[in-house]
Amino acid sequence: MATPLDAPSARQAPTTPAEPDATAPTEADGAPPPEADGPPPPEPNTRTAPKPDAGATPDADATPLPNPDASRPPKPDEPPPPEPNTRTAPKPDAGATPDADATPLPNPDTSRPPKPDEPPPPEPNTRTAPKPNAGAAPEPGATRPPQPDTRTAAAPGVWRRGRAIAGIALAAALVMLGHAAIPNQVGHLGSLVETFLPWTGLAVPLLLLCALVRRSATAAVAVVVPALIWCSLFGGTLLDKRADGGDLTVVTHNVDEHNPHPVRTARALAASGADVLALEELGAATAEYERTLAGTYPYHTVRGTVGLWSRYPVDASRTVDIAPWPRALRAVVRTPEGPVTVFVAHLLSVRFSPISGFTAGARDAAAHRLGAALRAEPRERTVLVGDFNGTLDDRALSAVTSPLRSAQSEAGAGFGLTWPASFPVARIDHILVRGVDPRSSWTLPATDSDHLPVAARLKL
Q: What pTM did the predictor assign?
């Protein structure tokens, strides 16, 4: 009887199966187990398959080669596999379009687990450099970046801007300094400018404000010129030069021919404490003034539209011919300190028209005649009071103002503006003296007239 080949022989001793090699591949790995006493299996091919060309299309029928290194654990005596190439592929050019068929290279650093003895890779430095504090001082020795010089670019603009403002400022300075050269032949333009000459100073703060708004150094420097000229002309007028003392108080007032309350005006003047009171522009209400003032001033004289009331005797009264009708008088007041000649005058009014300009011919002629009477007066102690319808700066009144001195200029405080009473812009009512010393000068409160009363205290 035949014995099956796969049956064990009764004479063959049973053998203990050999323990499998831990380093040998098993059936689970897909390789047949080697025989116990057989030769070792051949070494696997560890050569890496050639990389396909970039952009080449892989063969659809090609079978990918297995990577035995990834599935087989290393043997004890086997050298470690070579380190993979960790060089980074070159970055594509900025703006270049990537190839649609290109295969991205794997990053071996992120796919390979770290070795037991290998230190962990250093963490990337993601900290942002600290920003310098605003306004902090640089460290010693640190090099500061060059700063642009803005002064070079800004300086020319500061001097180029505001040239028109500078031109106006210089024009105002020329008017102040050369007002006497402005001709009077056409519309009495010179007299008109000189009547309101102090108001040219208003141009200084206005132009300075414009210069500051424009940030113009040229305009700011130019504004200094009219400011200095105005101060030289009128700076002394702003000072308070009033002093105590005096022997005679004089008051003059244009009571306004159309004054609705002459009695009330007369009472206010009587309460002023004046020793000598001169009134201009008397009219139909003259009798009311005489009646109201009689209790305070026992002596008075009236010539036409002007009158003089006094606490002391008045004599030698006469009319001064300056106009076709009586508008001025001359009288002597016998004060305890001696006689004083008093002139009361109301020069003719002026008119202003955009076509004819400043019409002042009749006033100027009256001023010349009054000036002649003053020069002919023999007594040294002389006082001229009244409404001149012009300021002391008006050259047309120089025949009256040049031989006398202004009480307001010598002993007043400010300009002492008198007209119009509601908002005075000019001083056309004056007290001028010769041979006496003004101690103080001021304006009285408004009455029912369109002029303010003027007062002065004189030392005889």
A: 0.66
